[in-house]
């Protein structure tokens, strides 16, 4: 009899948990990222013969060819970043998430009135992931691709077009403080593939000021670090080693339906 009572109680608890679980969920967030960082474009030594040749738009293919390029500090700038995730209870089929930010900045240092480097890059992540924990502690793991599209100008004389899609691994972990509306979360994207290395990490604190069965809405603040390195990146038949990183705090709003 005791065993039967325990079994019924466990079954009832399971059904209650199922009733409260999300059948289909949509998560959206928008934030503003205040970043600075560094950038470097290092021409390959074997391209020195191209130092005075021009490419598209009559821009020099390699004004620093044969020289040691400096690593320069970027101005403090800011940009909106957004993400949208779709989650469901269907077994074996992963959840999906997309993240986007436009990275636009230039170096503090100028020569003849022109910034040493001027960057304008669209950064988009396409992610597929599984929830391995979903309670007070939650955790996700998955795979995806990061697409970088834009350009880097050097002294407004040369331009390197960026158009690259890189496979990445993805993970996130979070914890909720019950009955307070407070939570903490960390996310990481990483890739070291085919002469390209990306590390994209962020951590945040969130407070939900609306928390009910229909929608959760919260304010959040966090810090993000993005580091990108390309070895032997080829543009206009010229190879360069590229390195740029962005880091800084962000604030935003998160909505979960």
Characteristic terms for this protein:
257 residues; mainly beta; Lipocalin; two-stranded antiparallel ribbon; 1 helix; 12 strands; disordered N terminus; TIGR04219 family outer membrane beta-barrel protein
Structural commentary:
By secondary structure, the protein is mainly β. The chain has a single domain, classed as Lipocalin (Beta Barrel). The protein has 1 helix and 12 strands. It has one helix spanning 2-20; strands at residues 25-43, 72-87, 95-106, 110-111, 114-115, 117-134, 137-154, 158-177, 182-193, 196-211, 216-235, 238-256. Strands 1-2-3-6-7-8-9-10-11-12 form a 10-stranded antiparallel beta barrel. Strands 4-5 form a two-stranded antiparallel sheet. The longest helix is centred in the N-terminal third of the chain and has 19 residues, at 2-20. InterPro entries: OMP_w_GlyGly. This is TIGR04219 family outer membrane beta-barrel protein. Keywords: Signal. Residues 1-21 form the signal peptide.
Elements, N to C (H/E): HEEEEEEEEEEEE
Q: Helix share of residues?
A: under 10%
First-residue to last-residue Cα separation: 42 Å
Quickly name the level 1 CATH class. Mainly Beta
User: Could you please say which CATH topology applies here?
Assistant: Lipocalin
Please state the overall shape, judged from the principal axes of the Cα atoms: elongated
Number of domains: 1
Task: Provide the β-strand percentage band.
Answer: over 45%
Number of extended strands: 12
Mean pLDDT, to the nearest integer, reads 86
Name the structural class. Answer: mainly beta
Largest sheet: 10 strands, antiparallel, barrel
Protein name: TIGR04219 family outer membrane beta-barrel protein
Signal peptide: 1-21
Organism: Acinetobacter beijerinckii ANC 3835
InterPro entries: OMP_w_GlyGly
